[in-house]
Amino acid sequence: MLKPRVIASDLDGTLLAPGGELSARTRDALAAARANGMSVVAVTARTSYGVDMLPDLIPLLDGAICANGAILYHPTTGRIRILRSIRTGSVRKVAAAIAKRLPDALFAVETGTGVIGDSRYQALVGPSNWEFVDGVETVFKRAKRAVKLKVYCAERTGEEMAAAVADADLGGLAMCHWGDFGMLDFNARGADKAFGLAYWCKERRLGPDAVVAFGDMPNDAPMLSWAARSYAMGDAHPEAIAAATDRTASNAEDGVAQVIEALLADDDDRADETEAAEGTAAAA
Question: What are this entry's molecular-function GO terms (predicted)?
Fold first, then answer.
């Protein structure tokens, strides 16, 4: 395998261990990759605050693409750039259309710097930078800007939710789900993980051929399709598997680290072969 210039990885279910922590093996693999000239980019549905909750990871990141591709974030400087946002009027209309199909839905709006959500969401989220308010109308009154609409249903899977709203007027927003987990995310038209990653790479004059990507869920599929080489985790959703060029082990088995270690080992082998060939030529 040729050494890539960028390692782009989803976080939850992919780079992070099942408990949401960074394993020692993965941490060492990322550090070795950066020491060998590779950049490491987190590509996640999380907010910038969600990335900040991973202090062991931050020193190993060259950047983060948050909110499913809508935001560029530099964890070491705290700089946030919103690439795509949604008009709040459009968010209201889409939420109303969804509520007709999913009357048990709870709504939240990600603003780029925080999240405003229905107070009934609080039990699911726990400690966070969320602001909880009473009722969906208050959510939209408080949100002055929207980069993502979040919808949660406790008694449904994400796939069931996606099927229920498939024929609704979603205003052209990009929708993604997490399989069995009962949540949908809606981003601005064209905003997905491939869009955010391509934007980050273009600023550095890099294309998909320079990237190896990792993911496990349907929202990772655009990124896995865009990168020249990509890996679905061992327990990945079928949509992620179909989009990726390869498979690796699960996050419980440090699947991302296994691929990085193999890439670095191949690079060392090629260096040894080159050195040997140069020595033979000099002797001749």
Answer: magnesium ion binding; phosphatase activity
Q: Read off the DSSP letter of residue 60.
A: G
Domain count, the chain: 2
List, for residues 185-242, the tens digit of each pLDDT value: 999 999 999 999 999 999 999 999 999 999 999 999 999 999 999 999 999 999 999 9
The structure's pTM equals 0.89
| Residue 282: CA count within 13 A, CB half-sphere | 6
Q: Structural domain of residue 63, as residue ranges? A: 6-83+192-275
Burial class (CB within 10 angstroms; exposed 0-12, middle 13-18, buried 19+) of 245: middle
User: Does a structural domain hold residue 284?
Assistant: no
Choosing from 187, 205, 227, the residue where a domain stops is: 187
> Of 124, 273, 110, nearest to 191 (Cα)?
110
Distance from the Cα of residue 13 to its chain's centroid:
10
Element (H, E) at 164: helix 158-164
